[in-house]
Specification:
- This protein is α/β, with parallel strands linked by helices and 202 residues long.
- It has 6 helices and 7 strands.
- The protein has helices at residues 14-28, 65-80, 97-114, 138-150, 168-180, 193-201, and strands at residues 3-9, 32-37, 51-57, 85-91, 121-126, 128-130, 162-164.
- The structure holds flavin mononucleotide (FMN).
- Flavin mononucleotide (FMN) binds at residues 10-15, 57-61, 90-93, 103, 127-129, 137, 141, 145.
- Flavin mononucleotide (FMN) binds next to helix 1, strand 4, strand 6 and helix 4.
C-alpha cells in the first residue's frame, strides 16, 4: 500500500478543504494518507512516505511563511520524490483558465525557482473570495478585496457573498493523475515482521 503525505498551508480554509478532498480521494484509492498542517511538520519524517503533495494559498502574492520555511528546509528530500512530489497553489487569480496561466507565471514558477523545487507535477487552482458578513477574511480585508473586485466590472462577483472558484472536477483529475503516475515505493522499507520471527527461530 502506498503511503503519502498531503501537507498544506491555508490562511482562510480554501486550501485546507482542497487538501481534505485529496485525502478523501486517496483513501478511496486505498492509499495510506496523512493530512498534515505545515505547522505540525516539525517531527514529520518525510522518508516514511512514498509521495508528498504540498499545497498553499496565496495572499498578496505569497504562500504562508510557515510553508516557505518548510520548503526551504526540506527541498532536498522533497526533490528525491521526483514524480511522487506534487505542488499546488490556490489563489484568486486562477479563477478562470486565462488566470491559471497568469498565476503560474506570477506565483508558481518564481516559487519553484526560488526554492529550487523539482516536483513531478504542479497545479494552480482557483480559490475563494468570501465576502459574506462573517467571512474569515475579516472586515478590513473583505473591504479591500471588494474594492479590488468591483474595479473588474459590475456583476462579475457577488460583492456581499461567497465567490468560490474551486473547480472540484479539475482538482480531482489532477490528484488522480498524480496517484496514477506513481513510480514505485520510495520510503525506507521496514522488515517484514514474519521474516524477523523466522530469523529468530533459526
Ligand atoms: C488579503 C488577501 C489578499 C489576497 N491576495 C491575493 C493575491 O495577491 N493574488 C491572488 O491570486 N489571490 C489573492 N487572494 C485570494 C486568495 O488566494 C484566496 O482567497 C485563496 O482561496 C486563499 O487560500 P486559503 O483560504 O487557503 O488561505 C487574496 C485574498 C485575501 C483575503
Amino acid at each position: 500500500m502506498y503511503k503519502i503525505a498531503i501537507i498544506y498551508a491555508s490562511r482562510y480554509g480554501a486550501t485546507k478543504e482542497i487538501a481534505e478532498k485529496m485525502e478523501e480521494n486517496a483513501q478511496a484509492a486505498d492509499v495510506d494518507v496523512s493530512l498534515v498542517d505545515v505547522k505540525n511538520t516539525f517531527k514529520l519524517d518525510l522518508t516514511a512516505f512514498d509521495g508528498v503533495v504540498v499545497g498553499g494559498g496565496i495572499q498578496i502574492g505569497k504562500i504562508p511563511s510557515s510553508l516557505r520555511k518548510f520548503l526551504k528546509k526540506k527541498r532536498a528530500v522533497l526533490n528525491l520524490f521526483k514524480n511522487n512530489f506534487g505542488v499546488f497553489l490556490v489563489c484568486g487569480t486562477a479563477k478562470d483558465p486565462a488566470g491559471v496561466e497568469t498565476a503560474k507565471e506570477k506565483y508558481l514558477t518564481p516559487l519553484l525557482t526560488k526554492y529550487d523545487l523539482k516536483p513531478g507535477t504542479t497545479a494552480v487552482f482557483g480559490g475563494v473570495f468570501d465576502l459574506r458578513l462573517n467571512s474569515r477574511f475579516g472586515k478590513l480585508k473583505s473591504g479591500l478585496i471588494r474594492k479590488m473586485l468591483a474595479e473588474e466590472g459590475p456583476k462579475k462577483y457577488d460583492l456581499n457573498g461567497m465567490n468560490d472558484f474551486r473547480d472540484w472536477a479539475t482538482i480531482n483529475r489532477w490528484f488522480e493523475a498524480y496517484l496514477s503516475n506513481f513510480t514505485g515505493f520510495i520510503r525506507k522499507q521496514s522488515p517484514d515482521p514474519d521474516e524477523i520471527k523466522g530469523a529468530s527461530k533459526n
